[in-house]
Write a structure and sequence with these properties.
β7 (about 90-95) and β8 (about 100-105) form a beta hairpin. The protein has 1 helix and 8 strands. With about 120 residues, it is mainly beta. It has one domain (about 5-105). Strands 1, 4, 5, 7 and 8 form a 5-stranded mixed beta sheet that branches. It has a 3-stranded antiparallel beta sheet with strand order 2-3-6, with no helix packed on it.
């Protein structure tokens, strides 16, 4: 869409949010992948990290849809992704949609260990 078009942006719903870490060396930064359905075919969906003065426990990331003044009504699936470099809180991330939020623990990843390989050494 040309930048001159008037866009209406708002936080929209999502259905699924996952953090993907490739198991290669050296490990690339983890990626947040969010999927859902948008109500207009020409809506542009993005993941917008919130800005903080100090690192929070869970870094908020909003799922935002921007639709031009003349929308094309159609329920269409979307998938968007975001490199999480610099956007992980002390415990993880929080994906923020219009009707739900989802916290994803990533404390092990913030310390350099991918979450899939983190081991709980506490006694059972």
């Amino acid at each position: 869409m040309p930048p001159s078009e008037n866009l209406s942006c708002r936080v929209i719903d999502f259905e699924k949010a996952d953090v993907v870490s490739l198991m290669i060396y050296p490990p690339p930064p983890p990626m947040l992948v969010v999927a859902g359905e948008k109500l207009f075919a020409n809506t542009q969906v993005s993941l917008n990290p919130r800005h903080y003065v100090q690192k929070p426990e869970y870094w908020g990331i909003e799922v935002v849809g921007c639709t031009p003044a003349i929308g094309q009504p159609a329920i269409v699936p979307y998938v968007v992704e975001l490199d999480l470099t610099g956007h992980v809180g002390t415990r993880g991330i929080e994906v923020i949609g219009a009707n739900q939020t989802e916290r994803i623990e990533l404390a092990a990843a913030a310390e350099g260990t991918p979450p899939e390989t983190a081991v709980d050494d506490s006694p059972a």
